[in-house]
Each structure stands twice: as C-alpha cells, then as structure tokens.
ABC transporter permease
Amino acid sequence: MSVGLANQTVTVTRAITTKRSARAPRPRRTAGGLPFTILGIVFLAIMVFPVYWMVNTSLQATSGAATATWFPWNPTFAGYRTAFAQQGQNFVSSMIIGLGTVVLTLAIATPAAYGLARFRMRGTKVFLLVLLITQMIPGIVIANALYTLFNNVGLLNSYVGLILADSAVQVPFAILLMRAFMESIPPSLVEAALVDGANDLRAFISIVLPISRNAIVTAALFTFLGAWGDFLIALTLTSTDAVRPITLGIYNYIGSNVTDWGPVMATSVLASLPAAVLLIVAQRYISAGALGGAVK
C-alpha cells in the first residue's frame, strides 16, 4: 500500500505542477525596444558621419569638402602622399611627446596613487580635493602660467617642455584613476609579502603593479590621448616647426592649404589612426580598469 500511495502522491504533484505551469503568464514580447534601437542607430549615424566624410573627402581629388560626392567613386591617394610629405615630421613629434608624457606621468602617478591608497596620512582628503579641482582648470590657464616659467629656464620650443607641460595636466587624473583601483586591492596581499621579508618598494613592484595592470593601461591610454590631442599647450609653448605636433600642424595646414581639402582631411585621418588603434587594442583593459575601483 505504501508503494501505491507514493505513486498517487507523485501523480497528484505532477498534475498540480502542470496546472500551475499552464496558469503561469507567459512573458510578453514588447515592441518598445524597436524604437530605441532605431533611435540608437540614428544617433550612431550622426556621430559617425563626420568621420566618414573626413575619410571620404581625403580620397577625392576635389577642391572643397562641400563639393565632394557622397562616395569616392574614383579614389585617389594623392592627399595622403602630400600629407606624409608635409606632415610626417609633425606626426613623429606628436608620437615623441605622447610617449614621453605617458612615461613621465606613470612614473609619478603610479607610486603616488599607491601611497594615497595604502597609507593613511593627514591631509589626504584635502590633497585629493586639490587634485580634483585641478581637473576643472582650463588648459589655456595652465599653458599661460607655464609660458613665463619655461621661457626663463629655456624650455620653449622643446620636446622636454611639451612633455613636462602635458604631464602636469595628466598626472592628477592618472592619480585619481589608479588610486580608486588600488584601494580595492586586499591589504593582506601586501602584508604577506612584507612578512616574507620584502620591503614596501619590493611589494609595490612585485604585487601591486601586476594586479593594477588594467588601471595602469587605462591611465596610460588616457594620458597618451590627452597629449596626442593637445592643441592649446602646443600653440602657447611652440613657435617653430622643429617640435610642432600634428594638431598644430593641421591648424597651420588649413591656413595655407584651405583651397585643397584632400591633404587636410588625409592628415586628419592619419592623426586619428593611433587613437583608434589604441582604443581597439586596449578596450578590455579600459573597461576593467575604469570599473575596477567601483566594487570592493
């Protein structure tokens, strides 16, 4: 009888479950996602269109950007050849300034961020507030303040001067970014290294830096992009062609070649390539580094 009762119980349970499943409301398919998708496509097309028109105009032998056709039916690379010949040195200058700014910024900001994250010192909150306020100062104000100083010490029209000036702008942001990530590192990892006989510097190099790779790559990328796209500081601190970056080269290029937009647009495309390549390569590091300090 016990076996029969058990079978009846199983049968009743299955019937109740089936009945409840039949009564359960099915998820409704909403059509609200389609308008948002269309709206997102429209916004994306609006944002991408200037980039497309820049590439499109650079491949056409036209006298003006407004007279270019919608598609380069007869593409030509004459504009790129002219851009390489006339703006090649400026491209190299921007690369030197960008990489130099990254090295100097990381050399200063990485240990500073670790010190602010690990050690509790008086005035830390005030110092962080000052760093945050510096992000609100316009770049032209910093450039004008540095002009007199660099003129007195002979750093105008030099790679060193531009690297120092760009690093002064990028260091506060890099410190704030990496400090937020380093605060999420468990203190027990560093303490274990100290117990094993390592000093603070050894623990910083062997433990903190490998763990903070994503944040460091993110800070390096934003630093490079900031130095690569700088215009105001370069315009203020340079007056010769020897150390002229690509942004200032495009500015002067438009003034002397405004009747021929092909080389101008080709130069703009070449100036955009390093940023685009770096963003694609370091995309996963950016997402991990930017959000790493948000969860503890």
